[in-house]
Amino acid sequence: MKKSIFFVSALAALTGCKEEPKTTGEDDLVAKAKAIHEKVITLDTHCDINVSNFTDSINYTQDLNTQITLPKMKEGGLDVAWFIVYTGQDTLSPEGYQKAYENAISKFEAIHKLTEEIAPEEIGLALTPAEARKIHAEGKKVAMIGIENGYPVGEDISNVKKFYDLGGRYMSLAHNGHSQLSDSNTGEADDVWLHNGLSELGKEVIVEMNKVGMMIDVSHPSKEAMKQMLEISKAPIIASHSSARALCDHSRNLDDEQLEWMKANGGVVQTVAFTSYLNTEKAEKFNELSKSVYEKKAKEMGFEMIPRDSVNKLPGDEKEAYYEKFMAMRGAATAEIDSLKAVSDPVSVKDFVDHIDYLVEKIGIDHVGISSDFDGGGGIYQWSDASETFNVTLELVKRGYTEEQIKKLWGDNLLRVMEEVQNVAKELAASS
Fold first, then answer.
1. Which of 58, 214, 360, 391 is most exposed, with minimal Cβ within 10 Å?
2. What is the chain's mean pLDDT, rounded?
3. Where is 370: in which H helix or E strand?
4. Is 232:206 a contact under the CB 8 Å cutoff?
5. Can you tell me the distance from the alpha carbon of 4 to that of 7, in angstroms, rounded to the nearest whole number?
6. SS3 of 54, please?
7. CA distances from 252 to 189, 243, 261, 286, 307 (A)
8. Residue 19's pLDDT band (boundaries 50, 70, 90)?
9. What domains, with CATH codes, occur in the chain?
10. How confident is the model at residue 174 (pLDDT cuts 50, 70, 90)?
């Protein structure tokens, strides 16, 4: 009898089928979820940073207004945060590239300062999956580094290796607006493209990323750029923070054809907790309700809010300064917004897991992961910051996901792809 039960459980884990939830009380589900949450490595692939929060006097050891801090990670049981070296798109000129490069370096340095000088006893920088697991086993939080926008590479392909040596383990070749390397998803709005996919330099960068062992991120580049990346890459790719377009028709999400490409490639889609990428209609309704609250708070703080599209057009440093003030305003309005959420229908963890359900059904449990986009616009009801991370696991348990499946979703899938990418780099080096 034990043999039969083991066979059925193993088969369920291999095929990705979910167990039917048993009829248990809420307390039992919470207890089960807590046990799983404490056991698995929880990994979030996209957390933006501001270098002003990485100083001796203001840093992540404190409970800042940011959505990610060490106290919030500890409270919510978030083990691994991928801190993002983000650079806003600007002019395709030597001056623009130099400014972008300096911005990127400042963020690499900030992350290293946190892990090497500010709080090395609390958080360590991992460069491989093995290092991530080792640091976690030591009882510390884990930092990893992703690069959002290849713009800082400029026209010097050697910067790919330089960024890798600084700890960058994935990179997207574009953000909001076409870069010198790749078209962006934003081209869908006006059907104006710069490269019709990747530029020649962008194609060379993909080859170089394979060579050094850096994961290719397709969350912001255009669909045609993604297709070309898949044709060139010898390693699996990732979407570091995207959801399912079939459930929410936004150009930042992946449609069913793109999902099939990801499955065939062996990559992973990191479902993102960004309200307008999960349920645009609900997000817009709640935004209208919360608008007056934020406007009132902004006025009190002497802060002028502008539309998101306008924010995205700001130069990188101005955009960061805006978001720093915005996050402070949003933090000050938390109590009023929470009260509003309790009596309305905001985009929530349930909507988030709806996307996970869809992706798992479409491409399988081995190709789906989790991301927040915290401090970059992400955050939903019940997972508004790292302190509420447990709520994601709880919802997964409520829907019948097994411990093994939750382990894959929360980190194992991403770490598997990372290891495969690094192995491809070793094979390329050996054959050259």
1. 58
2. 92
3. strand 368-371
4. yes
5. 5
6. coil
7. 12, 8, 16, 20, 18
8. low
9. 25-31+40-279+347-431 (3.20.20.140), 282-346 (no CATH)
10. very high
